[in-house]
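Hey team,

Filing this mostly as a record. A colleague (T.K.) asked me to run one chain through the structure pipeline before their review meeting, and I want the input and output archived in the tracker in case anyone asks later how it was produced. No errors, nothing strange. Just documentation.

Input sequence:
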Amino acid sequence: ADSPLRPGAWAAEFELDPSYRYDFGFSSGVTLSAKRHHSAQSALRFGVSVGFNESKDEGETSYERYNFYDNPSFRSNRGTTEHHGENHTYALFLHLQRYHSVKDAMSIFWELGPSLRYNESDNTSEYIYPVQVYGPGEINRDSYSAVLRSAALDLSLGFEWFFKRRLSLGARVGVWGGYSWGAASSWYETYTTDNSYYRVSQDRIDRKNATFQTSPATVTFSAYF
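Output structure:
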């Protein structure tokens, strides 16, 4: 009766992916969930995961081009580049957990259940090459965006250490697989600073495929009541 893993017990869990880095740009990934124990060995866990990743890069770029046909020539240039990317992920899940006690304050578990996932990414880059001695400068821009939805089955392994009677720290790692569908589009544009050359291309790809991925290792904090 004194154990937190008891029939009818509820718990709130906060989960963090420690692989996300807080540097130039912004990244975060968290999961909020609740679980209810049907017995000391089984619980139903449900919740939502949210992830956001932003990257920004600035630097130098260069190219070399060879033409071996009508007018053999060699051309090179050096310029600057800027890149910005964002990735958003969302997931809803419902998992069945099975607990196995190792010691009084330590339990290991496995969990299995369905999830619905949504992923949206957007990346843009710009390359600027200055005016050359024998010709104009160039500006190249490209972008890539994709939206992907997945219906999946998740499998995870983890443990909980009860450092207090109703509080625990733990970790979790797993895999998931299922069916994904969505679309991706890419766009590329290049032109010279004097408007003597211009080219643009655009592609769209519809995606429908089976997906299998690993889930990152996470750390957890749970409060039982």
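Quick notes for T.K.: The longest strand covers residues 73-103. Confidence is low (pLDDT under 50) at residues 21-26.
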